[in-house]
Amino acid sequence: MRQQLIIIGILAALTAVAIGVEAYVQRTPFDRHLADLEEAIFAGEWARAEQGAARLAEEWAKRRPWLQITRSTQSIFEIDRALGRLQIALRAKAALEAADLISDIRTVWRDLIG
After folding, report:
1. pLDDT digit string (tens) for 76-112?
2. Helices (H) and strands (E) in the chain — how many of each?
3. Which residues neighbour 95 within 8 Å (Cβ) at sequence distance 6 or greater?
4. Is the whole model's pTM more than 0.70, yes or no?
């Protein structure tokens, strides 16, 4: 009985840690900028979207050098290309294309940070 309680306690602790890690990952500045940008695009607020894209690019510029040390250069180049295409989509006010690119960036970002 005691061993079962210990095992249940360990499993509960591991579950809590996993949930905490997931919550932390979702709240990185890069993720917040992606969410803000996506919200601006869906609202049709193009000036705000362009400002959000600039903040996202600044955050990426901060993180990119560190990721280059330990991560796949292919993934890093995918985000670089998607950010460039995102700028073009925002200038053209192409909401669907911009939203698709944000989704692509988010997917690659999640793969990069684990």
Report:
1. 999 999 999 999 999 999 999 999 999 999 999 999 8
2. 5, 0
3. 41, 42, 44
4. yes
DSSP-derived secondary structure letter, 93: T
Burial class (CB in 10 A: 0-12, 13-18, 19+), 105: buried
In angstroms, how far is CA 89 from the centroid of its own chain? Answer: 19
Helix (H, G, I), strand (E, B) or coil at 8: helix
Q: Using CA atoms, how far apart are residues 19 and 46, in angstroms rounded to an integer?
A: 35
Residue type, 102: I
Q: Tokens 């000036």 sit at which residue?
A: 47
Amino acid sitting at position 99? A
CA 37 to centroid of chain Cα atoms: 11
Indicate if the alpha-carbon torsion angle 30, 35, 40, 46 is positive or negative.
positive
CA separation for the pair 62, 57 (Å, rounded): 9
- Asked whether 79 and 108 are in contact (CB, 8 A), the reply is yes
